[in-house]
Each structure stands twice: as structure tokens, then as C-alpha cells.
Design brief:
heterodimer, A: alpha/beta, Elongation Factor Tu (Ef-tu), domain 3, 2 domains, seven-stranded mixed beta sheet, B: alpha+beta, four-stranded antiparallel beta sheet, 13 helices
Chain lengths: 279, 391
């Protein structure tokens, strides 16, 4: 017989917005607290489905500290109807939330290694929980290098935190922008170019890469060229998602359901697929 | 009916048309919502049936690529046709259903689930390929890390009366996929319709205890050796009569090694991306969700409905669809069905029912397209050697 009925994973629960921080022109960070159940634990790299009343639901990565069990933090760029509605949420308003879902960054495997974080644009958000974890457990890791690229100086995400992380002796931070303005005196160019300039020990390094797909492909190529093994490069994929539990079919990438088998996937598993347009 | 019940030894009883009516009556009396074949709009479809009288008595179907026509038979067979545009997934995974409702409160919102209708289904006339399709959807919706509660509710109470095919439809290839034409397991009862010098009757076989209980004291007689032989021969005739074949050996590896095969572009020139193939497929499981509010903005519904990988926005992310071209969408559908499905669920997603061939408005034939890719030499894909193309 079919066993006892499983829980209804499609049902969101109400969560209250307790803080809203505007990060840049169209990027907002929401702090959320549960109104019904205890806050479930999450792994850096996982995501939740956030529901804006009557508008819809979208997958958003967790961008807060996994050690903070008081709530969830999400960083959202207003690009579509749902993300715009979510980013306009006011403190004390209530959203729907399901999750966390998906596989996180392989932190256990990364133990004992130098860590290279490569983040393009909003891709820094799903990597921030990793950085918090690395900094809190720095005795388990070697050098930490954070490479971040954004379109313009005004869009550099978590800028004050990046500056703070840079002051630590075991952390290097390099930032590049696609388009400089008169205030900018740093690197200009794409993120993969930072990989080429970065000082790190390729054989002892594990790389975590998140950003637009084209940026991840070129970053992975730069990492491979630098001598980082394909099995030590991990990327976080973005695909259309409706259910987040491998049932709706939208996020398929070859045989992987990105929502369930990813979003973090080892580069060696998907390199061939990434090279096929429109797969 | 348990998805893993053992195949029963071939023995059974004989019932006639009245016996079948008694069975429908009993199932109805036991609270089942009895669903079976009937004729509507020039096609044989599945709907609620209360009587044998509304079944497609004396009808058959003429099927070929992009062709489906009903025709009169010379006999009064009740199951003398192959599968139509419907499959049982429209009951187990409805085309559209409300998942939940949300209500805006003075502060915040409440979200409440909506119940699945409580009457269990009894499916009458489930073909062997369709039993396989149900077992495949069981793997998709029940056996993964996040089973679907609503599917589980509908599936666990379902009573299945299978029908063994005694004639092959024009687009059938279940024998290639190993799913038919005889129902091996997965049913509560199985019928084989026999019309010969000994009259019009049904060999009835029992698959489960629930099936046995349902036919206790049903007007019947023991099956004689002649009926058993006739049933065996009839299903063998159906297998032999299939005009289409799918070569499955190495098909997964072939498709996964050839995402850039020129034949994908050739198919794309014919494919209309209409999604018919995915809507008639008994195993396609993709769905989307949609949100509606009332005019005051106080109530919001979330609806889940069938979706298709041929739809333009199916793969959309910020920046546009991942699969913008029809070439990529057809490649996704066929590669998923025949190749990735095996990595995901340890079984092909194709049961050989032929619906996608029949209902394709331009007659694209999955067996022909697979053969065309096999006929041309495999090409190495980009970056070969660093990835097996699957999970």
C-alpha cells in the first residue's frame, strides 16, 4: 500500500518581515521571523520559496548567517512582479515561506583547504552565509579569498561588510566593476579577470562560484587554467522553479533537478552541459 | 492497488456484459467514483460512467501519425480500440487544481489547504501501457524525497480494472517498451475481451485481495482452457500487430551524447511547439502554478496546472527563456522522456502508447526521430570526457 500521507510541501507558512535594508537601487535585504513553526536550520547555499500575497512565489537564496536561528535573511533584486512585490514589503507585513530547499555549498569537503569565493553581482548573496561560516570557523580553513564583481560601484553588494572582511589577516578581498565612475579607483573589468590576478594556491583551493551563468562559465575556465581541479569548483545554478521539490519539472538541467539536486553543483558534473546552448 | 503486487498466475473466471455491469454497480455501491471509457466529440475519452451502455460499444479507432478517427466495428466489443487522447493521469494529477487559499488579515495572512475530493476512483479499462504509466508517475510523485500529498491521496484509494489489448492501435509500440500489450501487474482486476464462436465474454483475472473481494458472488463461471488459450492468443496477436518499434538498447547514451545532432534542427522545422504531445502523454508530469485574487484583494488562490516544456516561458528566468528555440524544446522533451528519465527514475518515461504520434498535428513520430538520430553517426559533444551528461 501507499504509506501514510506525506506532508504537503506546497503549503507556505506565514513569516513576518522584521527588517528591510535597501542595499542598492533595486536590491533589498529582508529579515524574516516565523509566525508559526520554529525556524528550521539551513545550509549555506540553500533557498526558500517566498510568496507575496496574491502575486506569486519565487526561489530566493538565504543570505544570512546560518548560526543565527532567530529567523531568515533574504537579499532580493526587484526584477519581476513577485520580486518587486517582495522588495516592497514593509516591516511587520507578512509573507508566505516554504523551505529551506536544495543542496548547499560543500563545507565539509572544503575543510582544510584555501577557499576562493567568486561572486558576480547578486551572486554574493548566496555566498554570504559561506563567508560567515568560514570566518566563524577559520581554524578549519586556510586562506579565504573573495572576488566580487558588480556592474557599477553603486551596485557593489554588502560593501561595508566586504571592507570589514578585508581587514582580517586571513582574508583577501578584490572587487571589480564593469563600468567605473569618477569615485572608483579599483579594478575595472569582468570577474574572471580577477581570478587571473588573484594570489592563491590552486592545488589546495576549493572554489565556490555564483553569478550569471556566463560569468560562472568564464570564471570556471579561468580557475581551470589557474590549476584548480574541475572537481574542486562548485557553482550555484539558476533555473525556473515552481515547486522547489523536484516535481514540477521546470528546473531540469540534463538529468538534474536544479531545485533538488542543486542549486550548488560540482563543476565537473555539469561542465559538458554548460557548454551546450539552451540545454 | 499496490504498485509492486506480484503477477498473478493466469487463471480466472468468465463474465459476460451483464457481469461487467454488476461489477460497475458494485464498485459504485462501495463508494467508488467509477471512471471509464466513453465517446465524446469523436474520440474515446475517460469520464464518469454508471453503465455499460455509455461505453464505446461497437467502436474502434483508426490511428496513425496526426490521424485519429472513430469507426464502427463489425462486432459489439466494449474495448475494441486503443488509447485515446485522455489518460488516467488527468484523474491522479488533474489538469488544474487549487492547492490552497490565502486570506489577508488585518495584520498578516492565513493560508489554508483545500481538500482533495474524498471518493476514491475506480478506473475501468486501464491498458497495460497505462498501468506502466501509472507506476512511472508513482515513482515521480511518491518515491522521491518530497512525495506529493495530493497525488498520494488520490492514488492510494484507487481501484484498477485493467483490460488486456487484443488488437494493436495504429501508433502503438508498447511491445518495444516492454509495457504491454498484456497487463502483468499493478491491477486489482484484469479483463480480456473475447468474441468468437463461443460468444462475447470476458476473461476476468484477479490481481489483489481487494479485487477478489469485489468479484465475490459475481455472476460468472470458471474459465475453461479454451478461454485461457484464446486470451493468450489475442494478446499475442496484438503484440505481433504493432507497426511501430522503438530500439531501446543504448538509446539513453545515444541521446545524451548527441545534444548537437543536426536532426534536432530538422525536427524543429516541423514542430509547432503546440504541446499536444506533452498533454496527451500519460507520464508527462510537469506543472506550473498560478495565483489569483478576488477583486478586493482579500482572498488569493494558488492553482497548480499542467505545463509543458514546449511552452515559451516554461524555462524563463530573469533575462529570458533558457530554451528559446523549438529545437531546444523538442530536444528537452525527447531527451528527458527517453534518456534523462532513466537517470532520474530508473525507468524510461515512454510506455509506447503512441499518443504523442497520433495527436501531433504534423505527425512527428518519436520512434522515427529516435531512429534518425541512431542512423547518423554519434558526434562527440563539447567538452567530452569531463561529464557523463547526467546525474
Amino acid at each position: 500500500m501507499i504509506p501514510a500521507l506525506p506532508p504537503d510541501t506546497m503549503m507556505p507558512e506565514p513569516w513576518r518581515v522584521r527588517s528591510v535594508v535597501r542595499e542598492s537601487a533595486d536590491v533589498y535585504t529582508l529579515g524574516l521571523e516565523s509566525l508559526s513553526s520554529p525556524v528550521p536550520p539551513f545550509l549555506p547555499g540553500q533557498f526558500n520559496m517566498l510568496y507575496a500575497f496574491g502575486v506569486g512565489e519565487v526561489p530566493i537564496s538565504l543570505s544570512g548567517d546560518a548560526a543565527d536561528v532567530s529567523g531568515f535573511v533574504h537579499t532580493i533584486r526587484a526584477v519581476g512582479a513577485v520580486s518587486t512585490a517582495l522588495s516592497q514589503a514593509q516591516p511587520d507585513s507578512v509573507l508566505g515561506l516554504r523551505g529551506p530547499f536544495g543542496c548547499g555549498w560543500p563545507l565539509t569537503e572544503a575543510s582544510g583547504h584555501d577557499i576562493l569565493i567568486v561572486a558576480g553581482g547578486l551572486g554574493l548573496a548566496p555566498l554570504r552565509p559561506v563567508i560567515y561560516h568560514l570566518l566563524a570557523h577559520s581554524e578549519h580553513f586556510g586562506r579565504i579569498t573573495i572576488l566580487h564583481g558588480s556592474r557599477s560601484p553603486a551596485e557593489i553588494l554588502f560593501r561595508s561588510e566586504l571592507a570589514m572582511w578585508q581587514t582580517r589577516p586571513d582574508v583577501s578581498v578584490a572587487i571589480t566593476v564593469d563600468h567605473a565612475d569618477p569615485t572608483w579607483h579599483g579594478h575595472v573589468g569582468v570577474v574572471p579577470a580577477l581570478v587571473e590576478r588573484a594570489v592563491f594556491d590552486p592545488p589546495g583551493t576549493i572554489a565556490f562560484v555564483c553569478g550569471p551563468e556566463v560569468m560562472m562559465r568564464f570564471s570556471a575556465a579561468a580557475l581551470l587554467a589557474a590549476g584548480v581541479g574541475a572537481n574542486r569548483i562548485h557553482v550555484s545554478m539558476e533555473r525556473n522553479m515552481k515547486c522547489a521539490i523536484g516535481l514540477c519539472g521546470h528546473c531540469q538541467f540534463g538529468a538534474d533537478f536544479v531545485c533538488r539536486d542543486g542549486p550548488v553543483l560540482p563543476y565537473d558534473r555539469i561542465a559538458k552541459r554548460l557548454a551546450v546552448p539552451e540545454l | 492497488m499496490s504498485p509492486s503486487a506480484p503477477a498473478p498466475a493466469r487463471k480466472g473466471m468468465i463474465i459476460d456484459r451483464d457481469g461487467l455491469q454488476s461489477l460497475l454497480d458494485r464498485l459504485s455501491a462501495r463508494g467508488f467514483d467509477v471512471i471509464g471509457p466513453t465517446v465524446r466529440d469523436g474520440a474515446i475519452i475517460y469520464d464518469r460512467i454508471s453503465s455499460v451502455d455509455v461505453m464505446p460499444e461497437g467502436w474502434t479507432d483508426d490511428q496513425d501519425a496526426a490521424r485519429y478517427r472513430l469507426a464502427r466495428r463489425s462486432d459489439m466489443a466494449l474495448f475494441g480500440y486503443a488509447v485515446g487522447p485522455h489518460s488516467w493521469r488527468r484523474f491522479l494529477q488533474p489538469p488544474e487544481e487549487r492547492l490552497w487559499q490565502a486570506t489577508r488579515q488585518q495584520v498578516g495572512l492565513t493560508i489554508h489547504t483545500t481538500a482533495v475530493p474524498s471518493a476514491p476512483y475506480a478506473f475501468i479499462g486501464v491498458r497495460a501501457c497505462e498501468l506502466r504509466a501509472i507506476s512511472i508517475q508513482d515513482r515521480v510523485f511518491l518515491e522521491g524525497p518530497h512525495p506529493d500529498r495530493r497525488y498520494a491521496e488520490r492514488r492510494r484509494g484507487a481501484f484498477i480494472v485493467a483490460v488486456n489489448c487484443t488488437e494493436a492501435g495504429g501508433t502503438c509500440f508498447c511491445a518495444s517498451m516492454g509495457s504491454g500489450p498484456r497487463a502483468a501487474d499493478g491491477f486489482d482486476l484484469a479483463l480480456t475481451e473475447l468474441i468468437d464462436a463461443n460468444g462475447h465474454r470476458f476473461l476476468l483475472e484477479v490481481g489483489t485481495d481487494a479485487g477478489a473481494a469485489s468479484v465475490e458472488d459475481l455472476p460468472s463461471r470458471d474459465a475453461d482452457a479454451g478461454a485461457l488459450v484464446a486470451a493468450e492468443e489475442a494478446t499475442a496477436r496484438a503484440a505481433a500487430g504493432m507497426r511501430r518499434k522503438m530500439a531501446t538498447a543504448g538509446l539513453k547514451e545515444l541521446l545524451q551524447a548527441n545534444p548537437e545532432h543536426p536532426h534536432w534542427s530538422e525536427v524543429a522545422e516541423r514542430c509547432l511547439a503546440c504541446a499536444n504531445c506533452t498533454l496527451v502523454c500519460p507520464t508527462c508530469f510537469c506543472s506550473t502554478v498560478a495565483d489569483y485574487t478576488d477583486l478586493r484583494g482579500h482572498e488569493a488562490d494558488r492553482v497548480r496546472r499542467w505545463d509543458s516544456c514546449f511552452a515559451a516561458d516554461f524555462s524563463s528566468i530573469h533575462g529570458g527563456p533558457v530554451r528559446a528555440s523549438r529545437r531546444a524544446r523538442y530536444r528537452q522533451w525527447m531527451s528527458h522522456k527517453l534518456a534523462h528519465w532513466i537517470d532520474q527514475f530508473d525507468i524510461s518515461g515512454c510506455v509506447g502508447c503512441g499518443r504523442c504520434i497520433t495527436w501531433c498535428p504534423v505527425g512527428i513520430d518519436i520512434t522515427v526521430e529516435a531512429a534518425a538520430i541512431r542512423a547518423a553517426p554519434p558526434r562527440p559533444a563539447a567538452g567530452e570526457g569531463d561529464d557523463d551528461g547526467n546525474a
